[in-house]
Amino acid sequence: MRLSYSDRFSMIISLLLDAKQFLSVDDISSCLQISKRNVYYTLKDINALLSRNKEAEIASIYGKGLRLSDRQKCFLRQYQQKINGMDVHSLTQSERNSLLYCELYYSDQIWKIKDFEALFDVSRFTVIDDINALKEVLVRFSLEMVYDNKLGYTLVGEEYAKRRAFYYFFSAVYEIIKKQEYLMSSFTFLNEDVYAHAKRLKKIESSGTGYYECSILALACVLSNILKSHTMQFHMDDVLPNEVIAKELAFVKAEYAILPDVEIRYFAACLYCSSISRSGFFNDKKHLETLARKMNDIFYLFSTIKFDDDKDFLSLLMKHLDISFLRYQYGISIDNPLIDELKANYGLYFDIAKQAVKVIELETDIPINDNEIGFLVLYYAGYTKKMEKEIPKIRAVLICA
How many CB atoms lie within 10 A of CB 307? Predict the structure, then answer.
């Protein structure tokens, strides 16, 4: 029976944990009936897992083999206990499609329906249903997912649009990484090279400005992809002025001089949009006020609470929209550590905010992810609590003739 990557990953860890003495690559290859190349490839990712968790890499002694330290054994046992409760079947269709798109964008593999069946351990019917749902979302990014007998499934559209879609889907993937990191071992778009780029990009924080972890990791994926595929030239409009992104521009030029100018400016702009906070306004204030008032009007329709009466609240919302609007334009994904709590405790606010952001979606022509909506919920819920107001609970019976 052919082992999946996640099976190999788990079984090699088990062999290392059970080994009384040194264990050679030949021993692992023979025991699992897989090639030595696959063993080396999987060991590389196990070492990457150890490294990400500040553990030393597996000791390898020439002529003897591999051996875990007591500290490594303790970590990997805890890791295996944790992942025993994780299951790919727990993923929703939206989560599967987010993973599917990211893998399709990054991987060089020829993807066919049977590959998606194996990846998610679902039926052919479920895969086809997932693909149809994914295609509907991709239309909003001006992208198509097409099938060819020789090439399998591929993405058709502008590179800039592919990246915007990647950031959108990666936002959901980031939530999976935090909760079920083990599931990610089956996907190539998060590998040692990507984490190395993320570590490199994180160096920009030494300047004092903080950046969203989700954004940094997503940008590292795109960087890794274009460097390995050598597709480093694309057309992009609306690049932020050099004087606005001066710090990020200098950083990217220093770290990635190999990139052409358009890519350097692109990643600098993406980093600027990924910052946690910015002072001042970049976008036109009147335009931001119009958007904020339209969103407040929608909130009023659903909640009967007026927000525009408070100029301080309007100003705060405008300031948030200023940097977030740039993220919407570039498609940058961010992480919101409170998202699950917000959905559970402020579900009604979340539902209304989803309607309110349609004002933004109409302008940017892309869907807004849940993490961004969550930040808006914080503003609206915070305001109503401060003003000691509540959204009325309406009970109604609809009778159709």
Answer: 21
Give the span between the Cα atoms of 224 and 233, in whole angstroms. 14
Query: Residue 336 CA to chain centroid, in angstroms?
Result: 11
Residues 145-182 pLDDT 10s: 999 998 899 999 988 889 989 988 998 888 877 777 66
Report yes or no: 315 and 338 within 8 Å, Cβ to Cβ: no
Query: Residue 393 and residue 210: Cα distance in Å, rounded?
Result: 39
145, β-bridge pairs: 155
Please name the residue that has the structure tokens 């990635």: 256
Write the CB contacts of 139 (distance below 8 Å, at least 6 apart in sequence). none
Rg, Å, the chain Cα set: 24
Please check whether residue 24 is in contact with residue 39, taking contact to mean a CB–CB distance below 8 angstroms.
no
User: For 156, left (φ over 0), alpha (ψ -120 to 50), or beta?
Assistant: beta
Phi and psi, residue 62, nearest 5°: -60, 130
> Contact 329/104 with Cβ under 8 angstroms?
no
pTM here? 0.69
CA-closest candidate to residue 174, choices 354, 337, 375: 337
Q: What is the β-pairing status of strands 65-67 and 152-156?
A: unpaired
Q: What is the residue type of 337?
A: P
Residue 183 φ/ψ, nearest 5 degrees: -60, -25
Q: Which residues face 66 on adjacent strands?
A: 23, 60
Task: Give the orientation angle of helix 5-18 with respect to helix 70-83, to 10 degrees.
Answer: 140
Per-residue exposure over 189-202, b if at least 16 CB sit within 10 Å of its own CB, e if not: bbbebbbebbeebe
pLDDT band at 379 (very low <50, low <70, confident <90, very high): confident
Separation CA 247–CA 4 (nearest Å): 44
Q: Check residue 184 and report its DSSP letter.
A: G
* Residue reference for tokens 């892309």: 366
Residue 234 one-letter amino acid: F
Average pLDDT, the chain: 84
Helix or strand holding residue 209 (H, E): none
Contact in structure between 290 and 242 (CB atoms under 8 Å): no
Main-chain phi, psi angles of 398, to 5 degrees: -100, 125
Distance CA 225, CA 228 (A): 5
Contact 263, 236 (CB under 8 A): no
* Pairwise CA distance, residues 276 & 1, whole Å: 48
